[in-house]
Amino acid sequence: MHSVDFFDTRIIEGTTTSIVLDNGKIEQISVNFTKGAAVRALKGGSWGFTSADGDFDIEKAIRAASELAVSMDDKSPKEKVKMQEIASPVVSNAPKVKKNPLDISLEEKVSNLKEFGKYAKKEGISSSSAVYSESSYKVMYTDSTGVEGEYDVVRTGFAISAVASRDGMYQAGRESRFGVTGYEIFDKYNAAELAEEAANSALQLLDAKPAKGGSMPVILDPELAGVFAHEAVGHASEADLVLEGSSVLENRIGESIASPLVTIIDDPTMHEYGYFPFDDEGSQTEKTTLIDNGVLKSYLHSRETAAKLGGTPGHCRAQGHSRPIVRMSNTYIDNGNSKLEEMLEEIGNGMYLIGSRGGQVNTGEGVFQFNAEKGYLIEDGKLTTLIRDVSLSGKILEILNNVKMVGNDLKMNSGRCGKGGQLVPVTDGSPHLMISEAMVGGA
Amino acid sequence: MYDLAEKALKAAIKYGAKEAEVYIMKSQKTSVSIQKDMIEGAKENITTGIGIRAIVDGAVGFSSTNIMSYIDEAAKNAVSSAKTQDADPDWKELPSYQKYPTVTGILDKDIQNMELDECIGHTMEMIDAARATSGIIVTSGSFSRSHGERLILNSNGIEVSEEGTGISGFVDVITNSGETSTAYDFAISRKNDIDFAAIGKNAAELAKKSQDTISIEPHRTEVVIHPFAFSDLIENTFIPSIDADNVQKGRSNLIGRKDDIIANEKLSIYDDGLLEGGIDTGIADDEGVASRKTTVIENGVFRSYLYDTYTAGKDGVESTGNASRNSYLSTPSVGSRNFIIDFPNCDIVADTDNGVYVNTVIGAHTANAISGDFSVEARNAFTIKDGKLDKPIKSLMISGNIFDMLKNINGAGTDVRKVGGTITPSIRVSDMSVVG
């Protein structure tokens, strides 16, 4: 009927609400309703994509995508793309929403935000802000092989940031919590306490010393080590990057690429911010072990990469109506059995890096960079001077092999990950890690 | 589009808004993507959406949708959101009727009417040019062309309707023999004037040139920063500090620094919404204030913050035409337009005895946007020896502070590039910390 080898459609409909509090005053309330469809069609080795907004005609969108695919196949023919066959997904074990945010009045959300936002405004804090956001979406998937699936997901969360200033110096602290949960997120986390923590971090950093760069042994706290798992290992495990030749993990399946202490997992079924019951091409999700005791076990796959490389699909995601690409979900380094005190004792002299201001990776060369929120010098096994503006960079494979101790205190942190211009919700986590040698950058 | 906008405006007033504004955006885009030396597919998108701002006693409510049958509901939501908030005495009013300048070079019929064949042709030009260099794989890349229209209507008589086009190309390459090295290049324009083959060629040659690296010891030296790296740093460190909203909220290093010397006396920086063919050029900003050119730094002296209507009202000054929106989904906030870095130029590498050249950086977004401190990983970096690029450097972190850097700029190249909205040559900075 459409003269293509495969097509699929994804319809997403939902609302988002966000409230921004700035220096104690509500700055903005925004409510959005969107509806749209994303359609893909495959002919030979060529993809055609279209998206349609609002009150669309799905048949028309499928025709448009098909025409594109046919025309591309005609103009630049190439090797046929095979899609892994899958069964229709089953949505079980979905997160239960106890307090649907849509049932709570805007007035209550505003007053709650104002109330906990106050706690960031401590003495010495020159400015503070807090944001509440919620989204509620329905996702419907169908493809030309008869796969069908549907789910609803509610996400809520909040973020608080505080800026402390003194004598022309500015430091910021930030705390945020997001999840696949309803308004009960405020029962799970004490937002007022977190607001106070953000303020304390900013104030504390005013007295921190700039870091002196160089190569040294380091301990990463669970948040920063989680960013390492995500940036350095997770991205390089994405099979689309492997296939295009830009991953250092290409042709390494079954090889030992890390210290035997390291096990890294990506699990979309966990009820964390990166949760999804099936991915954006209909594949049922399951827990995927990327590195098992140092050995590279698996990449993350889409239906296309799974068919090509052999593997299990379930990690293909899109932001809204964008085109789905291979992505992570909830990525973490599994618990080991060391304690932070043992790491400090073992390391003697080095640096303890805490929190994250984000990171970036070049998967092709296997080089990553990320910034810690703060750090401490470690001298004779003791935390001494507080350090600011400290970053860490290095080669993925070197650092993985330099992991000498893995803690038993796994913690997850929610955030958003960007790839190909698309942002998707993710969580990453880790216990404390001790690394025998890493490159620390500073002023 | 006009009828929808008017309907939305009337609805907001009917539900009780004292002032209201409607922003409608419609865009049509074709893109072609590359994966491993091949064209992977093509995408066509048409997006239309509407954003409604309703103001009640200075409190702003906002609602947006892409479902045109929801417009009435969206207007109602915007008004009720505004009513939920306390009055804001700092709110003056939405912009009112004004005369608009003419701008040129932002609409090109060739781009507007470009057929799929030509889009594929340009994509192939990038791939073929990159592959002309031996030992190179184009890992990923893309071509895109777009045509967009926006309409802004408000209850104070603003009526802005404008259309424009855009075209861009990007490739990322990797070497497949010898030492692994990567590089990318891209270009973006409002006119159909991009040399796509040059994008492929530049990326491929840079990746090749970056092989056979050496390690260097940590030291302080002169660093020449390519437009890609410099714009990345300036957008993440300097631009946030001239945003009047950050200044008013105590989140800027430039609070109370107007008319201070903050940079080398030869450095000037302009924000220009009128630049011929600029990426951020238009007759008006995203709330309908006429575009203009603002001097940010004049010969080293800090002259102006960037304002939208709300922040300008708060400071009792005129808006600089810097209200900016990413899409119809958000309210306007302060954003730079075409951001032009001006410094007397020369053959900058030939003018440098010893130092380091940095093409791109990774991690600029992790900088401290208030203090201006950053520590980033440099890519495609080279040593400079006796006025020539010498050896590629294996791994290099550069650290510094943007405000120190502005003072330490002591040279610029002749290679001015439009890196999105930032227009800059290569910039040389003295005394930077590099860790190899």
From TrEMBL, chain A:
Domain Metalloprotease TldD/E C-terminal, by residue range, is: 214-442
Which Pfam family, any one of them, does this sequence belong to?
PmbA_TldD_1st
Protein's recorded name: TldD/PmbA family protein
- Any one GO MF annotation of this record: metallopeptidase activity
Entry-linked SUPFAM superfamilies: Putative modulator of DNA gyrase, PmbA/TldD
Tell me the superkingdom of the source.
Archaea
Indicate yes or no for the key word Hydrolase: yes
Metalloprotease TldD/E N-terminal domain: residues covered: 9-69
Protein family according to the UniProt entry: Belongs to the peptidase U62 family.
Keyword terms, alphabetized:
Hydrolase, Metalloprotease, Protease
GO CC annotation: what is one?
A: cytosol
The UniProt record lists the Metalloprotease TldD/E central domain at 100-206
Keyword Hydrolase on entry: yes
TrEMBL record, chain B:
Q: Where is the Metalloprotease TldD/E C-terminal domain?
A: 219-436
Q: Which InterPro entries match?
A: Metalloprtase-TldD/E_C, Metalloprtase-TldD/E_cen_dom, Metalloprtase-TldD/E_N, PmbA, TldD/PmbA_N, TldD/PmbA_sf
Q: Domain Metalloprotease TldD/E N-terminal, which positions?
A: 20-82
Entry GO terms, CC: cytosol
Q: Name one GO molecular function term.
A: metallopeptidase activity
Q: Which Pfam families match?
A: PmbA_TldD_1st, PmbA_TldD_2nd, PmbA_TldD_3rd
Domain Metalloprotease TldD/E central: where? 110-210
Q: Which GO terms describe its biological process?
A: proteolysis
What is this protein identified as?
Answer: TldD/PmbA family protein
Species: Methanolobus sediminis
